[in-house]
Amino acid sequence: MLAKDRPLLEMRGISKAFPGVQALDKVDLDLYPGEVHVLVGENGAGKSTLMKILAGAYERDAGEIVIDGEVQAHWNPALAKAHGIAMVYQEFTLVPYRNVAENIFLGREKTRAGFFLDKRVMHQEAHSLMESMGVPIDTRLPVMELGVAQQQMVEIAKALSQEARILVLDEPTSALTVREIEQLFETIRRLKARGVGIIYISHRLEELFIIGDRVTVLRDGQRIGTRRVAETNADEVIKMMVGREIKDLFPRRYCQPGEVALRVQGLCTHDKLRDVSFEVRFGEIVGLAGLVGSGRTETARAIFGLDPRTAGTIEVMGKKVDHIDPPRAVEMGIGLLPEDRKRDGIFPILPLQTNVVMASLKQLFPRGILNPKKEQLEAGKYVKQLRVSPPDLAREVQYLSGGNQQKVVVAKWLCTGPKIFIFDEPTRGIDVGAKAEIHAFMDQLANEGNAILMISSELPEILGMSDRIYVMHEGSIVGEFPRGTDAEEIIRCAMGAKACK
What we know:
This protein has helices at 47-55, 77-82, 100-104, 119-132, 148-160, 178-193, 205-211, 234-242, 296-304, 326-331, 341-345, 352-357, 361-364, 372-385, 402-414, 432-447, 459-465, 487-494, and strands spanning 9-18, 21-31, 36-40, 62-67, 70-71, 85-88, 111-112, 116-117, 166-170, 197-201, 214-219, 222-228, 260-268, 276-281, 285-289, 311-316, 319-321, 334-337, 420-424, 451-455, 468-473, 476-482.
């Protein structure tokens, strides 16, 4: 055992079914004081369902929840909170216009005389909480003025203010920089020292070996196994997750690039970009690296016409573009897979079929008269090509896994017939199996002669998939590197230590 005390939490034989789907099948999970228990599995493996049962959001069909050795016959969100269970979701639940202290005590405001809001006490306690986590933040600042990492620390402080003993962190590093991740890990180490048990959900396997004590793998709603982190390795964990070995996560077949497909020179925007210049050729994948906030996404948005440029030129297939907006970009053969697929890439409550053809309705039906049969055939072609699962064209996209939602976004742009693809964080928040599939498809697109600009916060992805790499820092391109460049050199450049071209 990792702790001599009894478990804080035991989930025994948990089962849960939805119409047509067995989401969980007799799953076991336990957690000890001062332990980080990492929960991994492909999208759709059952991780979120298991955690929603723990939080009381879902009712279990079978199994037991045991807290401090006592079986909980009844379970709901109020009881979960009363037993010290708190969740920090990937998508924050903060109120942006309220300050840090107000967010931490939202719904549990401190009062005096049973009526008057005691802001002084709230700020004192909020300040003490942040200090105890090693994150000194001005508690009077509105949350909207904080960075992503600081907002996440506020979410954790909010959970700890409820005297949480069991903390669930869902994909906590998906939008953080290297420095911010280390800050988060230091906070986790402090919480471990205080005896807090942490269930840590992540698709980044490298984090498992940095912060985890044990790892449990779920696949298709079943627990495949639990291992001590010190006694396993990435290959074993991946094989447990996907049921097979993934020999090549970055299946890049390099070929001779063709003519310049996209050329950007001196691109500037009002508040972010300064003199950005680069080019992408047909048949190559060009990586755009840099820390979060360096201007990578803003570059993609400016090229696609979502953000106005104040200076600079854009050439598409040798033609200078004086004015560009999203419809014009689509006409010119550009497809943008956005950073936030849920907000900008899909219509969650609409069916799969509608999502796939949404961006190409004008091309498919130039007279403005929809043909459901043609729509179905066109959508079905790309759903089959990308192996979207399940391939039910009538299924609402919100019920697909993250990896399959990303495939739907790719299918939507394939349907428009682009020759230039901009992939912004193409594998964020998806499992290793889906990552390998997306990477293989990107490689296929490049070898078919398409041009790809790939933005990624994951350095192994940048190094493994790119023919060339541009690095951004504070709104400018500060370096250009060939494939095979050392990771340290990319990081050094991204942090502004030097400019390399």
